[in-house]
Amino acid sequence: xxxxxxxxxxxxxxxxxxxxxxxxxKGNVWLRxxxxxxxxxxxxxxxxxxxxxxxxxxxxxRMGEDLDxxxxxxCRSATVAWTVFLSVHFxxxxxxxxxxxxxxxxxxxxxxxxxxxxxFLGEYAARRRARRG
Length: 133
Description:
This protein has helices spanning 2-25, 29-49, 55-62, 69-96, 101-132. The chain has 133 residues and is mainly α. It has one domain (28-132).
């Protein structure tokens, strides 16, 4: 019963938050919310996977990797790193909702892609270094 009440409360709070955002953003809200929704979905996927098998480990195993204990530990660390990165990215993406449209477009249409690419490259370099070591 408590779980059902919590779900109802969270859905109601989400609905109120969406209505509040529509009011504050005064138009183009769905377009402007999209990057935040995507960032939030990826953040949730990576963060929730830390409860069981980290997402990076799932990706590695699907690619046919045979992971030893060090590989499993690396995958957990990579998932934590992505979770931290996505937390910051999500926060900035939400913050740009309240900035000018120019700022929103610059971050979400340019800067975000550079940062995500840099994170991919950094993780790839760290993975290669970990395999050698």
